[in-house]
Amino acid sequence: MSGRRISALLSAVAAVALVHASGAQAQSGVAIAGTVSSAQEGLMEGVLVSAKKEGSHITITVVTDDKGHYAFPADRLEPGHYNLKLRATGYIPDDRPTADVANGKTETINVKLDKTSNIAPQLTSAEWLASMPGADNQKAFLQDCVGCHTLIRPLSSGFTADDFMKVIPRMGTYAPGTQPQRPQKLVPGPRGNRGIVDASKIRAAAEYLASVNLSKEETWSYPLVPFPRPKGRATHVIYTSYDLARPEAMPHDVIYLNGKVYYSDFGSQYIGEMDPKTGKIIDHAVPVLKPEEPKGILELKPDPDGNVWASMMYQGGIAKLDVKTGKVTTYKVPDQWQGPNTQDSRVSPENWKVDGWVWTNDQQGHTILRVNPITGEWQNLGALKDQNGHTINGYDIPSDKDNNLFLLEFGGTKIGEINAKTKTLHTWEPDLPHARPRRGHFDQNGILWYAEYGSNAVGRFDPKTGKITEWQMPVKWQMPYDALANKKGDVYTGSMLSDRIVRLNPTTGEMIVYELPNSTNIRRVNFDDEHNALWVGSNHGNQIVKMEPLD
What we know:
By secondary structure, the chain is mostly beta strands. It has an 8-stranded antiparallel beta sheet with strand order 8-6-3-4-11-37-36-35, with no helix packed on it. Strands 1, 2, 5, 7, 9 and 10 form a 6-stranded mixed beta sheet that branches. It has a 4-stranded antiparallel beta sheet with strand order 12-13-14-15, with no helix packed on it. Among the domains are: 3-115, Immunoglobulins (Immunoglobulin-like, Sandwich), CATH 2.60.40; 120-212, no CATH class. Helix 5 crosses helix 6. The chain is built from 6 helices and 37 strands.
C-alpha cells in the first residue's frame, strides 16, 4: 500500500473515531466536526457537508453517518476561514454556517436544518422524471434534453403546447456544446435540425410538457418526490471539487494521467491541464479548423506515450497534446469527406502503436476513419455492414489491445467490432430492449464495460465469447453515460440526470449509490487506481470532481 493510501486511510479512521466520541473536544487529525439534525428527522444520515476556504477554488465534502456526525480530516483543510454548505434535498440550513480551522484544533459545528417550502430548485432531472405523471415512454424524449440544461427550465415555464411546438424544433438547431447563456447554432445541414422532426411527435411532446409544467396552475399538480439520501457505505466517501478558471468552461471528459488531470472543453477550443495538488489550470488552445462551425472538444484519451488526444466534433478533425512540450497538433479530416455538420466525436489512440493507425469517426456520416499520425495518411472505411447486412453508427469507439475497433450504437442497440486487419464488421445484441449503448472502457482482462443509456443499465461484453451481461441501475432514470471497471473489479458509472454515481460489484451484484455535492452533469468517468479515486467533470457546473471511496 502506498504512503498516500496509508495517510488517507489513517485520516478516515481518525474521522470515524471522532464522530463516534461523545462530547469530544479537540481531536488529533480532525479539522471540523459536528452533527446535522432537523426537527423532522432528528440526527440525519446522508447529508453532504462541504467546506470551502474563503478565496479558494477547492471544496472538500464529507457525508454524515447514521448518527448524524460528520468530520473533515485535518490533512484536507489548511488553516483559515471556511464557509460550509449542505446538501439534503427538502431541507435548508437555519443559518449560514462557517468554521475557523487552526492547526491542532477541532472546530465543532452542529448544524440545524429546516424543511424548505420550495423543493423544486433542489430536484435533479431524474427526480423530476420520476415525479412526473405519465408512462416512461411519454417522458423518454426528455432524456436527450439534459445535455444542455436541467429539466426545471421547461417544467417551471408557463409555455403552452403551442409555445412548445415552436420551442422544440428550435432547440434542435443548437450544437450540443451550447449553454443557455452561450448558445452555438449549427450551420444548415443534416444536423441543423437534430431535434424531434416528426410533426406528430413534436405535438405529443408539446402537449405532454404543457400538462406537467406551470402553464395551467401556479404550482405542480403532482407531488415532487426526492430520491433517498445516501446510507451505509454510500456515506464513506470524500469529494474534492475544483472550480475551473474560465466560467464558461464545460469539462466533458476528465482523465487522470501521470499526476495531472486533463479535461476536454465541450464548448470551447481548449484541452485543460490541472495540477490536482494546487488546482492550478493551464489551458492549451486547440486551433480552429472550421470557423463557421460550432467550437468545442468532446472525447479525450491518452496514447501509449502518455500524450493526450482529443476529438474536435464539428471542427472536422482530431488533435494531439504533447504533454511534455504543451504543443497541440491537429489532424484535419480531408475536405472531400466532410460536409455541413461533420461530427468527429470520438478518437481511439490508445493502441495505435500496434499498426500505426489512430481511429476516429464521423458520427453524422456514419463512417469510420483512421489516420497515420506519422505520415498524415487518412483512410475512410465508410459505413461498414455487419454479418446481417446492416450498418451501425458507432457513438463510442474503444479499441482493444490489437487495435480492433468496437462500436457502441447509441442510436440503436448493438455492439460492433471492426477487425483492424480485415476491415470486417460483426455485431451483437444485448438482451435488454432500447439499450442505446453509449460509452465504455476495456478493463485489464480485455472485457468491455459500457453504459446502456436507454435501458438504464451497465453492460459487460466479452469479445472472446460474444456474451453480454447486464445490470440495471438501482436509481430510476439514472441513464448511465459511461462505465468502467477499476483494477479491483468494481464498476463505476455516472449520470447526466441524477447527480449520483453507482458502484457495482459484478461478482455479488451489490450496488452503492453515492450522491454528489452539487448539480453535476457527468459524461465520461475515469479511475485513478493508484489513489483509489474516480474523476468526473461537471459539464454544466464549471468543476472537476474527485471522488474517493473510503471502503
